[in-house]
């Protein structure tokens, strides 16, 4: 695998790491709840929604060439979810948040962890965010 395929003006690794971290946070917020409990817990819904919003914002900063290396990650859906949460918040369906936190985020985390594992390690001090 050529290192040139991974190189970009801005280091994308911190954004991937944020996506993984906030996916874990969202799942931790909902841990121990069933769907009915989640739908009844506005505070948890808000916490999960904020995590998903951050994940989507981070995803926007990952270059397309890097996104192509994680095809199991639904990049457009993630960014779209962020846009809905930020701009059309009144349309947020708790059932969709529940599905995200219980199915999609774990898949995303595995895909992105594998992407980071395959990527060349950055030079020291290259976190340019």
Written overview of the protein:
- It holds the Pfam family HepT-like.
- It comes from Alkalicaulis satelles.
- The protein has one domain.
- It is mostly helical.
- The radius of gyration is 15 Å and the shape is globular.
- The protein has six helices and no strands.
Q: SSE order in H/E notation?
A: HHHHHH
Mean pLDDT: 88
Q: In total, how many beta strands?
A: 0
Q: What ranges have pLDDT less than 50 throughout 5 or more consecutive residues?
A: 1-7
* Cα end-to-end separation: 25 Å
The backbone outline, from C-alpha atoms, is globular
Q: Strand pairing plus helix content: what structural class?
A: mainly alpha
Number of helices in the DSSP assignment: 6
Radius of gyration: 15 Å
- Overall domain count: 1
Query: In this structure, how is the largest beta sheet organized?
Result: none
- Helix content range: 55-70%
Q: Beta fraction of the residues?
A: under 5%
GO cellular component, one term: toxin-antitoxin complex
Protein name: DUF86 domain-containing protein
Organism: Alkalicaulis satelles
GO molecular function: hydrolase activity; nucleotide binding; RNA nuclease activity
In short:
GO terms for molecular function: hydrolase activity; nucleotide binding; RNA nuclease activity. This is DUF86 domain-containing protein. This protein has one domain (12-117).
């Amino acid at each position: 695998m050529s290192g040139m395929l991974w190189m970009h003006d801005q280091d994308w690794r911190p954004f991937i790491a944020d996506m993984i971290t906030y996916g874990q946070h969202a799942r931790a917020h909902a841990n121990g709840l069933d769907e009915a409990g989640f739908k009844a817990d506005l505070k948890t819904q808000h916490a999960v929604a904020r995590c998903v919003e951050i994940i989507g914002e981070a995803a926007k900063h990952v270059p397309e060439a890097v996104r192509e290396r994680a095809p199991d990650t639904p990049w457009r859906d993630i960014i779209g979810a962020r846009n809905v949460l930020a701009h059309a918040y009144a349309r947020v369906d708790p059932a969709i948040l529940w599905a995200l936190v219980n199915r999609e985020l774990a898949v995303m985390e595995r895909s992105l962890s594998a992407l980071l594992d395959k990527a060349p390690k950055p030079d020291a001090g290259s976190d340019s965010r």
